[in-house]
Design brief:
Order of helices and strands: H
Radius of gyration: 23 Å
Oligomer: single chain
Structural class: mainly alpha
Number of helices: 1
Strand content: under 5%
Largest sheet: none
Length: 64
């Protein structure tokens, strides 16, 4: 992070890069939390897991 503020750190391009880095970090954290919640919900409700046509469903013979 910013160790000390000097004239170079206050350059508008650098401030923009700091803001973009912070924004990307926030987006990454939000996506990680969202993926964790989605995975938890999928594990707690296995009957609502998506099924794909033509794949075995575990209920008898697979569909042709």
């Amino acid at each position: 992070m910013i160790s000390r503020l000097n004239a170079d750190n206050l350059n508008p391009l650098h401030l923009c890069m700091y803001a973009l880095t912070f924004l990307l970090m926030v987006v990454g954290v939000v996506q990680a939390i969202s993926a964790a919640v989605e995975a938890r919900d999928a594990v707690s409700k296995p009957e609502s897991a998506p099924t794909f046509p033509g794949r075995p469903t575990g209920k008898g013979l697979p569909s042709p």
